[in-house]
Design brief:
By secondary structure, the chain is α+β, with helices and mostly antiparallel strands. It contains 2 helices and 6 strands.
């Protein structure tokens, strides 16, 4: 491998630190958007930035693009909230930002329904 093509260990460490800081900054910015309840790791937990010893769910940093997956509150307007998320992330990273609303969460928890199994027989 040529000297230009080889990445030194220190260069990899710098790149990992940059990705870590960037993912954390993005997660904080997204979490501060009104209507966002949480970052969402995807249906099978596949969406995230994998870092040494940890993972930032809901933030996928690609080469030239960024994906954000969120859960929003039921009361939040979906498109407006997604646009705010996109704008918050675009202020941090260059390139396109794709936002996926994975779930809509009610602010008040659902009331459990009590039922008697004998009534169903």
């Amino acid at each position: 491998m040529s000297a230009q093509g080889a990445m030194t260990a220190s260069a990899r460490e710098i790149q990992a630190v940059d990705a870590s800081e960037q993912a954390d900054r993005i997660a904080a910015a997204v979490s501060a958007v009104p209507g966002v309840v949480a970052l969402h790791g995807g249906m099978f937990g596949e969406v995230g930035t994998y870092l040494p010893g940890r993972r930032v769910p809901g933030v996928r940093l690609g080469l030239g693009f960024t994906e954000i997956h969120v859960s929003i509150s039921f009361e939040a307007p979906v498109r407006e909230t997604a646009n705010r998320v996109r704008a918050a992330v675009a202020a941090i990273v260059p390139g396109p930002v794709d936002v996926t609303v994975e779930d809509v969460i009610p602010l008040t928890p659902a009331v459990p329904v009590e039922w008697d199994a004998r009534e169903r027989q």
